[in-house]
């Protein structure tokens, strides 16, 4: 081929590519107004399908059960450690409804916190502008609801949103004790909702009918019922762990007909102490070694393998959330999920449940490839202006996440309802403009 012919061929390819590009670019111009409107509506629906209404921030609106025993999983002795160890620190989230609007999950017990570190760095305190609206005030303003009302409530308050993330402590008819386990039946999980009792199943059937009627879907259950999933070191501890796994299976079984995608199994205290063990010099060589963390991970891996097998047979994924203790380190979660190596076991990251600020974005980058179903798109004033919701959402999108963003406002200057509406706008903005990613 002559040089002239070669140049002519290159020119022909360039002209063809230019023409093709121009055709694609003008496709939108050639669309009729109706076609453009339909295309825009389809894009908007696709974005809204990525959002999930979340019960946690609006829990003060829910009717409450007066009897004792449904509250926090206070922690049987020895939970999350070798036989007779201290177990979970703090009450955690438990199965209770936590009617206060003010903030964290767990902790808050013992001696007053220090105000500065050993190096003289000020320790953050609860912001002065944090909303402290009481449950009674919230109900007066927004009304009182139950889980059976939440599907329609979601549609009314978040236009276009049809998916939901539901907290385990809010299920059941609070006037019907037969739907709830006794504290003894609940084991370390307390006397919460029993999804496999006759009345519990009937309640879930009623919820299923409401889902059909409202055109809504349960994407995720944030489940605090399973307990002691990392207990080890004695026959008693292993029995507790097996009972916690059985509790997880009970919830999977009860919800198998509702079409849920995933279920988080670790409460704040289900995987051992909320403050996980640290490495100390061991082994005679003077170098740090963490001999206490490994058996916790081994027990958690065994528990999740069994629950993933059970959930897989029902088409429900079981998930780890970065929910303090063992799960607060994304590397621990990656190791456990890789070791379990099961298509029905994954991560459901939370934007803010981290121990230090460098994890806010790097932790999400680490977990994004392990998450497929649901994340907690959270604002929490614990991190001040470092809590960038749009940036966090974009990190998940860039990491290949295809699931839903549950609108979980933890605490801040807004109450739970208005905070969730703020998150609705923030996540939609990130979905509309998924770049740049920092």
3D structure, described in words:
By secondary structure, the protein is of the alpha/beta class. It has a single domain (about 45-60, about 75-105, about 120-430), classed as Divalent-metal-dependent TIM barrel enzymes (TIM Barrel). The chain is built from 13 helices and 10 strands. Helix 11 packs parallel to helix 12 (about 390-400) and helix 12 crosses helix 13 (about 415-430). The longest helix is centred in the N-terminal third of the chain and has 23 residues, at about 5-25. The chain is globular, with a radius of gyration of 24 Å. About 45% of the residues are buried.
Question: Can you list the strand order of the major beta sheet?
Answer: 8-7-4-3-2-1-10-9
Question: What is the end-to-end distance?
Answer: 49 Å
* DSSP strand count: 10
CATH architecture: Alpha-Beta Barrel
Most strands sheet: 8 strands, parallel
Classification by helices and strands = alpha/beta
CATH topology annotation: TIM Barrel
Number of structural domains: 1
Bin the strand percentage: 5-15%
- Round the Cα radius of gyration to an integer and report it: 24 Å
CATH class: Alpha Beta
Q: Helical content, roughly?
A: 25-40%
Helix/strand order: HHHEHHEHHEHEEEHEHEHEHEH
- The poorly predicted ranges are 2-26, 68-80, 83-94, 98-111
Mean pLDDT: 86
Number of alpha- plus pi-helical segments? 13
CATH superfamily: Divalent-metal-dependent TIM barrel enzymes
Shape: globular
């Amino acid at each position: 081929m002559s040089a002239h012919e070669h140049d002519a061929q290159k020119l022909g390819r360039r002209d063809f590519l230019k023409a093709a590009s121009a055709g694609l670019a003008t496709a939108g111009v050639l669309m009729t107004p109706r076609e453009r409107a339909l295309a825009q509506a389809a894009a908007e629906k696709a974005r809204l399908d990525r959002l999930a209404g979340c019960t946690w921030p609006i829990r003060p609106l829910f009717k409450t059960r007066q009897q004792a025993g449904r509250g926090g999983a206070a922690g049987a002795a020895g939970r999350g450690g070798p036989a007779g160890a201290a177990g979970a620190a703090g009450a955690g989230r438990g199965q209770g409804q936590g009617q206060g609007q003010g903030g964290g999950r767990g902790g808050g017990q013992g001696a007053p916190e220090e105000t500065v570190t050993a190096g003289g760095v000020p320790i953050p305190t609860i912001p002065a502008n944090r909303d402290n609206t009481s449950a009674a005030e919230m109900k007066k303003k927004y009304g009182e609801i139950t889980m059976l009302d939440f599907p329609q409530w979601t549609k009314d308050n978040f236009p276009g949103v049809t998916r939901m993330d539901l907290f385990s402590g809010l299920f059941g008819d609070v006037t019907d004790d037969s739907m709830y386990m006794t504290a003894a039946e609940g084991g370390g999980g307390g006397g919460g909702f029993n999804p496999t009792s006759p009345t519990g199943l009937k309640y879930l059937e009623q919820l299923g009918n409401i889902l059909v009627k409202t055109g809504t879907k349960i994407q995720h259950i944030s489940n605090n019922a399973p307990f002691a999933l990392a207990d080890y070191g004695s026959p008693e501890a292993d029995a507790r762990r097996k009972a916690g796994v059985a509790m997880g299976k009970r919830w999977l079984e009860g919800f198998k007909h509702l079409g849920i995608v995933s279920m988080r199994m670790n409460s704040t205290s289900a995987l051992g102490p909320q403050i996980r063990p640290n490495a100390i010099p061991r082994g005679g060589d003077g170098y740090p070694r963490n001999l206490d963390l490994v058996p916790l991970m081994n027990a958690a891996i065994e528990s999740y393998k069994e629950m993933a097998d059970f959930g897989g047979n029902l088409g429900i994924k079981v998930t780890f959330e970065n929910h303090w203790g063992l799960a607060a380190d994304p590397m621990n979660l990656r190791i456990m999920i890789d070791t379990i190596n099961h298509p029905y076991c994954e991560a459901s990251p939370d934007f803010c449940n981290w121990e230090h600020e460098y994890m806010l974005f790097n932790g999400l980058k680490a977990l994004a490839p392990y998450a497929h179903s649901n994340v907690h798109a959270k604002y929490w004033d614990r991190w001040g202006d470092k809590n960038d919701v749009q940036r966090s959402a974009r990190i998940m999108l860039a990491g290949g996440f295809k699931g839903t963003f549950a609108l979980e406002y933890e605490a801040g200057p807004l109450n739970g309802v208005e905070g969730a509406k703020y998150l609705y706008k923030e996540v939609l903005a990130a979905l509309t403009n998924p770049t740049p990613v920092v």
